[in-house]
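Note to self: keep these together.
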Amino acid sequence: MASGKEYLNFILDQLSGLDDIAYKPMMGEFILYYRGKTVGGIYDDRFLVKPAKSAVDFMPAARYESPYEGAKPMLLVDEVDNREFLAGLLEAMFDELPAPKARKGKKKTD
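Structure:
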């Protein structure tokens, strides 16, 4: 089951207090970015985040769920109605998340 644009828009609205939230559609789902770093995504109308230690500490009772068959488990965010909670979660995770990988461009030939 693919995620609906309505749920994505709801999550984006809940995160609207943060600067530089972006998303990218990916095979019927949506990858979410905070200040250029991948934090998680919307999978089957569920908000899942990377299981960084800071996210586990922030949500100690969170369940691990797989975004899709064969994928590594991620943390299910249940408190999607709480804007302050969501902002705090992403802020807590930010420093721990890896920087985006530099894209390799095509080499110019003379």
